[in-house]
Amino acid sequence: MSHGGATMVGGASPGSVPVSHGHKLDTVDRRVRVTELVFRILICVLGVLAAVLVGSDSQVRVFFSIEKKAKFTDMKSMVFLVVANGIAATYSLIQVLRCVVSMIRGTVLFSKSLAWVIFSGDQAVAYLSFSSLAAVSQSSIYGKQGQEEFQWIKICNMYGKFCNQAGEGVASAVVVTLSMAIVSSISAYSLFRLYGRNKRQGSGRR
How far is the C-alpha of 73 from the C-alpha of 166, rounded, in Å? Predict the structure, then answer.
C-alpha cells in the first residue's frame, strides 16, 4: 500500500521496520567463547607441563669425589614458578568446565557480579604468572651467564641437563603468561559489554 509516496510494509514504513542483528551478535559470542575455551585449555595443559618440568628438575654431578645435586628448590624463583603455574592450571581447569557448561547450555554471560569475579580472577592469575616469569628470568640469566661482580659462576656450564629442562619449563611458562594476558582481555570484553548492553537498553526505553 502506498501513502504519500511511501510504501507501507505490514502497516509500517521502511524506515520503521526493525532490523535484527541477533545472528551477527550470536556469531561473535560463539567465536569469543571458542577462543576463550581454546586458550584456557592451553593454559591448563602448559601450566601443568611447566610445573612438572621445573618441579622434577634435578641433576647430580661429582666434583673431586664429592657429589653435588642441583634441584629446583635451590632457587626460590623456580619454586615460585612451579606454584604459580600450578595455580594457573587449576584455575584454568575450573574455567574450562564453566565454558563447556555454558556452551552446552547455549547461555551467554549476563550476570555482572559473575563477570566481575571472572575478570578479577583472570587479572590476579595473569599478574601472578607474569611475576613468577620475571623472577625466574632474572635467575636464569645469572645461571647462564654468571655474575663476575659477585663471583657467581656459570651454573649451566656444570649442570647442562638441569638448565635445559628448566629452560623448557620456562618456555612453557612464557606461553602460559601470554595466554593469560589474552584471556584477561577476553574477560574484560565480556564484562564491559554488559554495561554497553544496559546503556543501549536504557536508550531504547526513552
Answer: 12
